[in-house]
Amino acid sequence: MIESYAILPCNGLDKCAGAISREIAIKLCENAGNEMICPVFYRVAETKYNKIAGEHPLLVIDGCPTRCASKLAAEKSLKISKRITITEEAKSHNIKLSSGLRLQENENTLVELVLYELENAHDNAAVVSIESNTSYHFDYESFQNGKFIFRVPGNPQIYFNENDCWAYVIGNRARIGVTDFVQQNLSDILYFTPPEIGAEIDQFGEVGEIESSKSVFELISPVTGKVISVNKTLEQKPELINENPYESGWVAEIELTDFESDKELLIGFDKYFEIIKKKVEDLNG
Amino acid sequence: MSETTFMGVEREKIDWKPTIDYSKCDYCMECVKFCPHKVFEVNENEEIKLIVRNPSNCVVFCRACSKTCGPDAISFPDKNATTQRIKEIRKEESID
Questions:
Q1: pTM of the full predicted structure?
Q2: I need a surface site. Which of A52, A127, A232, B47 has the fewest CB within 10 A?
Q3: How many angstroms separate the first and last alpha carbons of chain B?
Q4: What pLDDT score was predicted for residue B1?
C-alpha cells in the first residue's frame, strides 16, 4: 500500500493528460489518508499547503513533460518523494490519449492502471540491486572560479565523456556519476530519477535524470552495459550529488559489455580537466 | 558559448540537432526557455514562430529539450548512428 502522501497534481485544464492527473489525485485522496495540494490555490495561499507538504512525503503528478507541477514544487522548495508523468505512463502502457478534456474509456483504463501501480509500488521490487563491495578511492585536482571550486578525480581508472559524466572502471564493472561541473551548474539538486535496474544502456544513452529548480540534466552514460545497481539513497537525499558527485553522490553501477569500444570515445583526467576549465571560463564570460 | 569540437571532431561535421515537428508544436516555447545554448530562435512575427537557429550549439547526445516538450514535437537523430559516424571521422582524420 502507498504511503500517506501530500499530492501535488497538474492543474488538469489544458490537456487530456492533465485531466487524468487531476482524476488520479482525486481518487487517491478519496481512498487513503492522502492530502491534496491545489496548484492554483497554492500560488495565492501557501501557508495551508506548506503545512501539508511538511507533514507528508510529496507525490507529484505531472500531466505532460512540461512538468508544471514539478516546477511549482521546485519554486516552493518542496522535496519530491515520488513523481509520475501521465504521458510517460500512457506510453509505457501503450495507451493513446484523446485530445479532449473529458475522460473516455482509454483514459479511465490508464487511471485505474496508475492507481493500481501506486498502491502496489512496494510489492514490485522484483529486481534486486547488487551494489559492489569495492572501495573506491579518489585523488582530486581542483581549480576555483569565483566562489566555486571544481574538483576532478585524477585516478587512471576514471574515464569521462564530454557530457560531464564519469565512469570508475574496475574489471567488468563501472560506477558512474556526474562531475562537479554539473552539480555546480544545477545548484541545489531537488530530485533524482534513477535508471531502471536491469536496463541495457548504450554508450551515450540516458541513464537517469537529476533536477534542480534551475534545470533538468539528463545523465548520458559514458559506457555500454547493464544497470546492476543504483544509489537508492539519492532518491531521498539527492543533495548528496551536490555534496560530492563522485563519492556519496554516485548514480549507478553498470556491468560492462563493450568497454574496449566505449574507450574510443572517452577521455582521461588530463583532457577532461582542460575541457571543464574551458567550459567554466566560457560560462562566466 | 558552445564547444567547437566533440571528441576532437569539428562540431559542424556531427549531425546532432533537434528537429521540430510543426504539426505537433504548440509554440509553448518551453524548449527555448530550457536550452541555455541558444539552439532555438523565436520569431514572433513569422508564421513559423520557432526555428532551430544554431544547430551546432546543440550539445552532442543531449536530448533534454525534448523532455520538456509537452506535445512531444522534438526529435533527435539516431544516437548509435551518430556514435558510429564520430568514430569513423576520428579514424579518417587520425584523431587520438
A1: 0.85
A2: B47
A3: 25
A4: 41
